[in-house]
Amino acid sequence: MQLNQELQEVMEGKKGETLKKVLHTMMRYGELFGADAMVPITSRYNHLVTSFGLKALTPVYDLLDQLIAEGAVSRQKFTMDPRPLDPDVPSSFLQNIVFQKFMYSKQESYEKQLKKLGLLDQDAFTCTCYLDEVGNVPKPGEILSWSESSAVVYANSVLGARCNRNSGILDLMGSVLGYVPRFGLLTDEGRKADWIIEIRTSKKPEAQLLGSAVGKKVMEEVPYLVGLDRWLGTLDEDAKTYLKDFGAATASNGAVGLYHVEGITPEAAQQGRGLIREGAKTYVIDDAELERVYRSYPVIWKKKDAKPKLCFMGCPHMSLKQLTDWTEKVEKGLAENGHKKVTVPTVFTAAPGVIKEFQKTEYASRLKKTGIILSYICPLMYMNNPLSTSMPVITSSNKLRTYTSARYYTDEEILAQITGGEAK
Amino acid sequence: MKTFKGRVVSPGRAVAKALVSHGGLNTLASFQKALQFGDKKATCGDQNNPDLYGKQMAGRALCLPGTIGSTTGGLVLYCACAMRRQPACMLFSEPIDSLAAAGAILADVWLEDVSMPVIDSLGQEFLDYVKDGMTIAMREDGTVLVKE
Fold this sequence. Notes:
The structure holds two protein chains of two kinds.
Chain A: H1 5-11, H2 17-32, E1 38-40, E2 46-48, H3 58-69, E3 78-80, H4 93-103, H5 107-117, H6 149-157, H7 170-177, E4 179-181, E5 193-199, H8 207-218, E6 223-226, H9 229-232, H10 237-253, E7 260-261, H11 266-271, E8 276-285, H12 287-295, E9 310-318, H13 320-337, E10 346-350, H14 352-359, H15 363-369, E11 373-375, H16 379-383, H17 386-389, E12 393-395, H18 398-403, E13 407-408, H19 411-418
Parallel strand pairs in A: 2-3, 5-6, 5-8, 6-7, 9-10, 9-12, 10-11, 12-13
Antiparallel strand pairs in A: 1-4
Helix pairs in contact in A: 2-7, 3-5, 6-10, 8-10, 8-12, 13-15
Chain B: E1 2-5, E2 7-10, E3 14-20, E4 25-26, H1 27-36, E5 61-64, E6 67-68, H2 73-82, E7 89-92, H3 98-110, E8 118-120, H4 124-129, E9 135-138, E10 143-147
Parallel strand pairs in B: 3-5, 4-6, 5-7, 7-8
Antiparallel strand pairs in B: 1-10, 2-8, 3-9, 9-10
Helix pairs in contact in B: 1-2, 2-3
């Protein structure tokens, strides 16, 4: 791999041994995937995945101390995934002890490290950094060093930026160096589709279920979806929200970093079926296939018919449009079922920036009246401990289902459950 | 005994009992609980992986097609290595994915006295042949010997 003058000096150790080690790491990473060059990062901000001061990750914090001590900090400001704790979210006395004394005991010291490394601001904690209210919105063609699977797949697919599915730590090392290796989704060839996904459902497919089906089938390859434009129309706020949730499910149930939707996503709109590789495989998704995928999810609750104790919505974080739409849906559901407040303790999660905008609307007080808690928390981090695992938690997030014991239901089923309607 | 040849991702030698996942390894879901709660055996916590769920991963020759899931995957593997709860080696039937690669490289470059050799591109035949409990010997040139 050829290096420019700047990186050559780093390689020769003229910028310090730590930065040399960072370059060595990034080059080895690139060489494994046939990278031909190190290319400059062109986005304004980075986005990092590791937002939690988890005691189990102590080796990572030691490594970050090493970077900070050598002045090897990020050359661009960055946003982060959501914080793992929020006092507004219901938790038991025992859970609080586990969260604060055992699991996230490094949170405070880790956030101090993040400030030194280049954290954008105190509100920068969300997995949906690409929403307008947050402001980390890359332009088409920009080169990123992001991680967070749901954000990478959104940036690549919906925004047309270019980013590989980078791991935590390497995301930061990219912006410490200012360069990433060029391979995979950074290249035209790597953005071509390996799969044609034909959507033949009788109604708009549930985003989280469709994403799960696609992810499980194509794994890390690139799908080109045909027939979804019929249900999405144009790339408006509703479609973007749909694709946010669809993409997160493809990335967590499989390892998708980029998808194309015919007539909708920018590259598919421009290049059409020219994006499809010769010999691409085909996967047909109809109502029966979605039902099969739904029924394949294991229920790992101890008592399978337990009454839910908590409902999480917003993994990835909800958009402003979702918050207003769901406020209306919950109000309507409660009225129809003769209730004033939700019948299952429910938490909606969103980016701090989105919450601020939502609080300016009339919907904020209306949502509060339903009893729903609005939080910036990461539901996944809340769920990942034995005490939460033993709780019957429901969600319509396929990502949360994949990583935790939360049980998946469709949006419609969740609405029925939290508003006291008939649960299926 | 059967011999397979792959590409060396992270060099080293290892002899260990095989642990086989026919589906992708979800690194975060598999390791998180073990790292968080001091499980030295690194018992797999991924409910969606019937091949591995509830089995010891530390010290095993982990045979798999690739890794999937959260992009914390690389740093989770790095931490497993730093905390000495890593597999004895990782053997991929397919070319390695970016997250597993990150974990292997980070451990190799940034950790001293820790070894998790990694070989990829061993082929589907390798994954079809190898079974839990078989003895694996991997060499530095990317050769993998599988004994029943």
